[in-house]
Task: structure prediction
Amino acid sequence: MKKPVTYLGDAFFYLVSVFSVICFIWILLTPAKYFVAGEIQKVFQNKGESRAINKYNELLAKNNITRENYKPSIILRKKTRELTIYANSIKIATYTVGLGRSSIGRKQNKDDLKTPEGSYYICKKEFSHKYHMFLQINYPSSEDAERARNSLLISNTDYINISQAETNGEPPPDNTELGGNIGIHGFGSESSWTKDGSISMNNIDLEEVFWNIPVGCPIMILP
Result:
């Protein structure tokens, strides 16, 4: 026969379990779920942001660079699948990346599975993205658009719209035969797997790039 203390312990455990289930269901069925999700997101966001910024502050300090005169740029070498961040022409960090499934050659159209090559810049940043985070590059650029217009892949109107977006520092239209909405995101760099030609990174590496690279940062993508 169980002792009274054991019965009380079992009863307490069951009561706590039932209460927890009721609270969980209540959260799911009421607007409270949005508050809880938001608080959880803040916790992870703050941790990622703080760690990434602190690490880069240390790297910058080692090279006698302050945040006030920090001018970053990115060079991505497709052949070695390396993304390197420079600050004032000094190498700060290098990361392994994944590319489009067809990793050799310049991107010619939306369906060729290739990563763009050329001179671009970060035109938009998204904290919430299906692949963790996202730094969009301004592909197609006016140079891409000019080649495509000359080969009759896009119309002159498309070329004008793409060039105008570049002039204004805005994301280019993504509804032409060149495709678009390409950039740097997470979910792994172990292989070249993206269908649109985007650049993939390990999530923890992406966080470091995301929190230390501003919109407007130049990125050169080399073969």
In short: The chain has two domains: 4-58, 71-222. The first helix runs from residue 4 to 29.
